[in-house]
């Protein structure tokens, strides 16, 4: 496919020529018609695949020249660095088009940004918090918004922005196109799509189900978390074999729990990364793991995505991902540069479905190993392992493990109502010395002498 097949216009072709691009990347080719059609879309693509232009090409092609002040396109990204980068990319692509683009993010003077907004903009690129502040201040009017793009939504949710996003959805016009990009599919991303998107079309560059030849894979059937932990501790005793092991878990709560448990055994050899850790902490952890100071790194899918670390001896799937793509990404961290790598997956009974999806994608059955007899099989369960009934589609009842604490407007103790049962009536009656009624059989019962 060439850019000519996308039926763009001369200003865009000229900009693309200046950039030196010869053909659309796969995600650009796949996403173009969907975005252009106005349908809601979920794109699964990692940084570096050309995803920014995948949504900007159709958006810029269809954005008519206008002098109106209110923006028509809003692009939300998780970090200020990304705001700067996306604005930069748009400016390159819109070099020969008369389009007004503004990037806004927190930690900078809001008044300067208010003035820039007031001048009138076509496209706003923003972090969620600052966008909301500008909208609440009424300087930024979102009523003319036609398209909303949320980029890196997995990172955004991992950083705890779910509530901010929902607040923003509330102030956007209902009739709009939603476009979202995520590198990994997570439960949180899935829930957001179900709750707020209308029949979105999914666009992804098919992940290859063929793992690298030099990765050898094995699986263990393990009944529960504590047995998984015992097995991992048992295997890690052999420091020579497991000399650089990356342990994947699906969320930060599990990362913390596992880190604390392993810390008792492998204190000096262990590090962890997830989004609740500061950037400095994460960078230090990665550096120590890369250099071999620590031989075990516990990580979540989202945070480990951009990791570029060589010589990983083992990738552990401490839990079985629900989305087989995540498994392929995880194990791709080992077996690099012609070296042999080992991928090991632990699955409980409940995780068998995920395991089957992985094996179907790869069209192979992963060889199974038996739990060594020395490993203690635990019967204790953690909270998540006790059966819970999930009301998937009820946003008001969703138990969000990443939700922040209670809202500031939570009722104070003295104002909160308490159900005191039937006796409350009598307490009040006694307090205000209400007359007794002859027909009050409870009263009569209690005072029968
Ligand atoms: P992104 O995935 O959007 O972060 O883009 C990664 C890099 O690829 C950026 O530096 C883009 O300028 C570049 N890029 C985007 N589209 C193309 C293309 N069709 N051909 C070559 N490079 C591209």
UniProtKB/TrEMBL annotation:
| GO cellular-component term (any) | cytosol
Per the Swiss-Prot or TrEMBL annotation, the motif Q motif is positioned at 1-29
The answer to keyword Protein transport applying to this record is: no
Family listed = Belongs to the DEAD box helicase family.
Cross-referenced SUPFAM superfamilies: P-loop containing nucleoside triphosphate hydrolases
Q: Which domain of life is it from?
A: Bacteria
Q: Which residues form a coiled coil?
A: none
Name the record gives this protein = ATP-dependent RNA helicase RhlE
Q: Which InterPro entries match?
A: DEAD/DEAH_box_helicase_dom, DEAD/DEAH_RhlB, DEAD_box_RNA_helicase, Helicase_ATP-bd, Helicase_C-like, P-loop_NTPase, RNA_helicase_DEAD_Q_motif
Q: Which UniProt keywords apply?
A: ATP-binding, Helicase, Hydrolase, Nucleotide-binding
Q: Where is this region: Disordered?
A: 388-449
Q: Which residues form the DEAD-box RNA helicase Q domain?
A: 1-29
Q: Which Gene3D superfamilies match?
A: P-loop containing nucleotide triphosphate hydrolases
- UniProt biased composition (Basic and acidic residues): 388-417
The UniProt record lists the keyword Ribonucleoprotein: no
Domain (Helicase C-terminal) ranges: 231-377
Q: Which residues form the Helicase ATP-binding domain?
A: 32-203
List the GO molecular function terms.
ATP binding; hydrolase activity; nucleic acid binding; RNA helicase activity
